[in-house]
């Protein structure tokens, strides 16, 4: 049976990923809907449609564009975090430290902008470096002391959070726990819009950060698939021993990977906070969810940088949509709850792919057995 | 008439997607006989045994015990029928005693407290009756491989198994231990146990088995009485053609020293002690030096030290006059050291990479394959396709096949192709034919000899007695981390080598 067979459409990896991602999304919505029904059946359908609709809630297309802009502003840093996670994952590392690297990036970026008065691009570089530094720390612990990067990542998340809180205390607004407003203190540190904002009904937070994030996603794909470095890093991730055997510097590769992953997350933070959309609260006592959501976005996107562009947008879309749920019927946490249910199920993409393949194999084997009985 | 068969497998057929692993196979094991099951790798021996143990359900065929048809749905059913197996890789808990290992799973207890006294008595009695000589209170990690194997045998006897399966039992033993094992098997058969002996070593089958069933490519070829057959006939049945057992090679005078090892010591990763202790030797151009010895006597660590996978704690390694004791792995490789690793899955291949990506694993950084940091995919494809063609590496989809989906023999051929095509000064080949079928073994031996004839230095590490004798120009025997003897394959015998391997004999080196 050497005849060349065409791969069945269900066996193509990209189709499988897409299918599994869609199943996850659907399942998440169903589970979320059931939860809403249990809490208050009267408003459940309306609530779930609000979440899915997000900015389409508005009938006015100008308002729609404006709020689409808001979703994009937050989708860009999420994309960066998911790139950070998936890049490390391709090299066999689980970068749960993306959250802390994001915090470090936010701190370094805002400090450079507010305390040192530096221009936006310097602040972005500083943010990337801060994230990279934190990533390298995890990488070095892994390479030289064999400390699991998940453990060191989680610990560094908290260290980063409290360090940044105290660092940013010097640029805190006197009347609130937030840092001073960026556009008033140092307008040169706001990432330029270059006319993009005008497209989104003068949404001034829409900046070149958004196309930049997409360009970086494509660059990461090229790096992984087309370059010598990508070949080495993936080989190290797939088989550390073989990488060592053929003379790759697997320790250096581990540190480099975590450094790049950290830089991506740190840069993501700069993209968000240097748009001026939000200020940093120096009293916050939980690590921002952005880094963790990056894990979900990475898996929902099938661990592919291009897939991550879409999955990041989707996750941010439903997260923002949660804000439109009727607060008279549900408590204010409900929007977070529904989006986290969906995000949680997004983590099951690989599981569904596995199920799909098992089912296909089973079907093939059954077909063979049938043939044998004849 | 009373049924004379202990177990019968009749017309067994087992299919997997794309392959028929067992095609209408019949195997009849008489009571009290030693029955050999012969076949190359991939002939379907393992599948057939998995069917017998209930791990696979066959599409067709029946299994009978004592003439009664039985259903074996899982390994528990097999155990209940008195079928036991000594696996090629022992399933023992290293830090437990022999006795603890034997009773594991069937621990005699009263109210949840262990009752070892009765168990110890039974083990001692069995041990004496079959001449097994195992101390029930010794720890597994302290006893020899031969004794560990006898512990596995005792495990079966303790469970009153009547049908004993030995899966390639001689692979890890010295010639002396093999003789002992054969005697034990004869004792067991004389006491009425029925033995199934899985092997591809013809001499052993001829020595111990009463009958032999042969499988080839999933098909049943036939069953013969060993006293009415010859090794040549068996091998022809197994391979389907006549095989040249002997490696053809011409006399050659060795040239300059390529590899010089002085007083090298390498620490073991597993244990705290030194695995290689002050070893010195040379490999010259145009000669094949073979490191012989029983598995686990420091051969692995010796190679790790030479190739840089583990640091050398003492001594000096020189390649073509350059000190490489502390050189990084990449520079050793580019200086002309090729390494066919012992474990092709652990070191030799990135299994989830394609065949072409694996073929350039040692060369991807050369300008031919990388320009400006980007891989030159076209050149990689071309190079891979040339090697696939030249070394006859077979795979489902050619250069883009996932290495994981290839057969063991073709995976090994790909590694051999990659390492030899680099045109090395020194080729280090560690068990290059492990787990391969006769045809592939022949091929790889020819390649190694061709390297030697081209004036390259070859260091071969092997556990296979025949390979050591046939291929090498000079034999160094390793025992407990030291080289205890240098032998000439033209004048030595397997028995003499066995004495060195077992540590019974040594010369001052």
Short description:
The complex is a heterodimer of chains A (374) and B (509). By secondary structure, chain A is mostly helical.
What does this structure look like?
- The complex is a heterodimer of chains A (374) and B (509).
- With 374 residues, chain A is mainly alpha-helical.
- Chain A has a domain at 65-305.
- Chain A has helices at residues 13-39, 44-53, 61-90, 98-115, 120-145, 149-168, 182-185, 196-199, 209-226, 228-238, 240-245, 250-273, 290-300, 305-321, 334-346, 349-373.
- In chain A, helix 1 packs antiparallel against helix 2, helix 3 (61-90) packs parallel to helix 9 and helix 5 runs antiparallel to helix 12 (250-273).
- Chain A is globular, with a radius of gyration of 22 Å.
- By secondary structure, chain B is an alpha/beta fold.
- Chain B contains 17 helices and 24 strands.
- Chain B is globular.
- At the A-B interface, helix 10, helix 11 and helix 16 of A face strand 1, helix 10, helix 11 and strand 20 of B.
Say how many strands of chain B there are: 24
Q: List the uncertain runs of chain A.
A: none
Helix content of chain A: over 70%
Coarse shape of chain B: globular
- Residue-averaged pLDDT of chain A: 89
Q: What fraction of the residues of chain A are assigned to beta strands by DSSP?
A: under 5%
| Sheet with most strands: strand arrangement of chain B | 6-9-10-3-11-12
Largest sheet of chain B: 6 strands, mixed
Largest sheet of chain A: none
Based on secondary structure, the structural category of chain B is: alpha/beta
């Amino acid at each position: 049976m050497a005849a060349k067979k065409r791969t069945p459409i269900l066996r193509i990896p990209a189709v499988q990923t897409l299918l599994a991602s869609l199943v996850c999304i659907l399942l998440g919505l169903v589970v979320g809907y059931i939860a809403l029904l249990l809490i208050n059946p009267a408003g459940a359908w309306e609530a779930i449609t609000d979440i899915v609709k997000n900015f389409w809630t508005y009938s006015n297309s100008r308002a729609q564009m404006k709020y689409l802009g808001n979703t994009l502003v937050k989708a860009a840093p999420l994309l960066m975090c998911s790139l950070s996670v998936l890049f490390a994952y391709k090299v066999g590392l689980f970068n749960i430290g993306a959250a802390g690297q994001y915090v470090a990036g936010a701190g370094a970026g805002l400090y450079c902008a507010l305390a040192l008065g530096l221009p936006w691009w310097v602040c972005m570089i500083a943010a990337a470096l801060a994230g990279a530094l934190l990533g390298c720390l995890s990488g070095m612990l892994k390479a030289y002391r064999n400390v699991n990067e998940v453990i060191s990542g989680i610990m560094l998340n908290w260290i980063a959070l409290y360090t940044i809180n105290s660092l940013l205390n010097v640029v805190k607004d006197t009347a609130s726990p937030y840092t001073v407003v960026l556009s008033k203190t140092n307008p040169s540190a706001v990432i330029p819009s270059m006319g993009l904002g005008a497209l989104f009904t003068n949404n001034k937070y829409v900046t070149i950060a958004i196309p930049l994030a997409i360009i970086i996603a494509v660059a990461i794909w090229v790096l992984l698939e087309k370059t010598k470095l990508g070949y080495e890093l993936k080989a190290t991730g797939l088989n550390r021993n073989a990488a060592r055997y053929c003379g790759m510097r697997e320790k250096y590769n581990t540190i480099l990977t975590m450094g790049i992953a950290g830089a991506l997350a740190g840069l993501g933070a700069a993209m968000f906070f240097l748009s001026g959309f939000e200020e940093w609260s120096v009293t916050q006592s939980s690590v921002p969810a952005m880094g963790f959501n990056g894990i979900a976005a990475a898996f929902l996107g099938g661990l592919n940088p291009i897939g991550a562009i879409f999955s990041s947008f989707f996750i941010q879309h439903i997260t923002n949509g949660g804000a439109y749920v009727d607060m008279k019927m549900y408590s204010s946490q409900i929007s977070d709850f529904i989006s986290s249910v969906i995000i949680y199920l997004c983590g099951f993409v690989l599981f569904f792919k596995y199920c799909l393949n098992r089912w296909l194999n089973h079907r093939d084997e059954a077909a063979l057995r049938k043939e044998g009985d004849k | 008439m009373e049924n004379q068969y202990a177990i019968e497998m009749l017309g067994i057929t087992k299919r997997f997607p794309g392959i028929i692993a067992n095609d209408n196979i019949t195997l009849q094991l008489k009571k009290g006989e030693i029955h050999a099951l012969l076949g190359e790798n991939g002939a379907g021996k393992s599948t057939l045994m998995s069917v017998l143990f209930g791990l696979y359900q066959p599409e067709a065929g029946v299994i009978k015990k004592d003439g009664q048809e039985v259903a074996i749905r899982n390994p528990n059913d097999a155990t209940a029928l008195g079928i036991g197996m000594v696996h090629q890789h022992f399933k023992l808990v290293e830090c437990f005693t022999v006795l603890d290992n034997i009773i594991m799973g069937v621990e005699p207890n009263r109210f949840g407290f262990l009752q070892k006294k009765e168990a110890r008595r039974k083990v001692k009695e069995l041990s004496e009756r079959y001449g097994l000589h195992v101390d029930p209170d010794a720890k597994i990690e302290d006893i020899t491989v031969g004794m560990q194997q006898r512990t596995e045998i005792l495990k079966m006897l303790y469970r009153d198994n009547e049908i004993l399966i030995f899966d390639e039992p001689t692979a890890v033993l010295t010639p002396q231990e093999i003789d002992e094992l054969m005697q034990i098997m004869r004792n067991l058969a004389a006491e009425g146990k029925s033995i199934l002996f899985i092997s591809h070593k013809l001499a052993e089958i001829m020595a111990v088995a009463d009958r032999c069933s042969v499988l080839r490519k999933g098909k049943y070829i036939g069953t013969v009485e060993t006293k009415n057959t010859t090794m040549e006939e068996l091998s022809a049945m197994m391979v389907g053609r006549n095989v040249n057992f002997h490696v053809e090679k011409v006399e050659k005078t060795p040239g300059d020293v390529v590899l010089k090892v002085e007083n090298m010591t390498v620490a073991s990763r597993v244990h705290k002690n030194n695995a290689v202790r002050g070893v010195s030797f040379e490999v010259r151009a145009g000669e094949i030096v073979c490191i012989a010895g029983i598995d686990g006597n420091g051969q692995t660590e010796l190679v790790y030290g030479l190739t840089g996978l583990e640091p050398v704690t003492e001594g000096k390694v020189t390649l073509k006059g350059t000190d490489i004791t502390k050189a990084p792995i990449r520079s050793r490789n580019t200086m002309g050291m090729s390494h066919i690793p012992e474990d092709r899955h652990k070191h030799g291949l990135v299994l989830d990479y394609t065949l072409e990506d694996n073929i350039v694993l040692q060369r991807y950084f050369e300008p031919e394959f990388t320009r400006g940091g980007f891989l030159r995919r076209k050149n990689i494809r071309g190079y891979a396709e040339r090697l696939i063609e030249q070394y006859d590496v077979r795979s489902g989809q050619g250069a883009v096949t996932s290495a994981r989906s290839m057969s063991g023999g073709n995976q090994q051929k790909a590694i051999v192709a990659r390492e030899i095509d680099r045109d090395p000064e020194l080729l280090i080949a560690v068990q290059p034919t492990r787990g391969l079928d006769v045809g592939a073994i022949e091929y790889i031996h020819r390649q190694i000899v061709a390297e030697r004839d081209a004036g390259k230095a070859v260091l071969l590490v092997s556990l296979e007695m025949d390979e050591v004798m046939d291929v090498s120009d000079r034999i160094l025997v390793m025992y407990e981390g030291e080289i205890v003897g240098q032998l000439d394959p033209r004048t030595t015998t397997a028995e003499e080598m066995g004495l060195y391997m077992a540590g019974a004999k040594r010369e001052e080196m």
